[in-house]
Design a protein that fits this description.
This protein is mainly α. It has nine helices and no strands. Helix 1 packs parallel to helix 6, helix 5 packs antiparallel against helix 6 and helix 6 packs antiparallel against helix 7.
């Protein structure tokens, strides 16, 4: 594997998870996030992800990875469109019910998700549109990075299909280190489903729409079921943990 590909994998597997963890600690240290802080968070994340995609796409093109290898070619337009729509509706519905279930639960995991939701999820209609822009960016950029570039590079390196899917899913799970162990495990499972679908449909379009649907539903259902008044001590306790 070329040196620049190794460097990208180090960034995806080590630096990005650490960056996310540090950003979470800073967010948890803020007594209360306002509209300005959330909009700034959305804007900076959108800019960072597109910058990352630009750099990775540049190196992928320089090393001869084709659009087809990267999953950017649509094979069977109507079949792919139906898979994208049905899958997005299914996963969006499951996400909604999962957040509702979580909102009715109790314990430290519930408290953590509550504090996290209050800081990063939209709290007003004004914040909803920028959040949807963030969800769309995540769907496009993260799928290109983890199911597009990573799977193409690992396939070129000679890994078997199961190894390609598992490795890219582990990287995807680590990227959500800031969500704790539960977040890593759940995103690893989702990443495995997305990676399998990327191979089955020979492209990224379905999983890009699925990813957007999951994040968009989180922005609508998360505040509804997770956001409540939290005593300041809870935020401090979670931050210390």
């Amino acid at each position: 594997m070329p040196w620049d590909f190794w460097l990208i994998f180090i960034v995806l597997g080590v630096l990005l998870p650490l960056r996310g963890r540090l950003r979470l600690q800073k967010l948890m240290a803020i007594p209360q996030m306002g509209r300005r802080e959330r909009l700034s968070l959305y804007a900076s994340t959108i800019a960072f992800q597109w910058l990352a995609v630009g750099v990775v796409a540049w190196r992928a093109w320089a090393r001869g990875l084709t659009p087809n290898e990267l999953g950017l070619v649509v094979h069977g337009r109507w079949r792919i469109l139906m898979a994208a729509i049905v899958g997005a509706a299914t996963l969006g519905t499951l996400q909604w019910f999962n957040l509702r279930r979580m909102g009715r639960s109790s314990g430290k995991a519930r408290e953590f998700m509550q504090v996290l939701a209050e800081r990063i999820l939209p709290q007003s209609p004004v914040e909803m549109l920028p959040y949807f822009g963030l969800a769309l960016t995540a769907g496009l950029c993260e799928e290109f990075l983890y199911r597009g570039f990573a799977m193409a590079a690992l396939t070129r390196a000679g890994l078997p299909v199961w190894g390609v899917v598992l490795s890219s899913s582990v990287l995807f799970g680590l990227a959500h280190l800031y969500q704790g162990r539960g977040g890593i495990v759940s995103t690893l499972v989702v990443g495995t489903v997305f990676g399998t679908a990327r191979i089955a449909y020979d492209g990224l379009l379905p999983v890009m729409l699925w990813h957007f649907a999951v994040d968009a539903v989180a922005g609508v259902a998360g505040p509804k079921y997770l956001v409540r008044a939290v005593p300041p001590a809870v935020g401090k306790e979670i931050h210390k943990a």
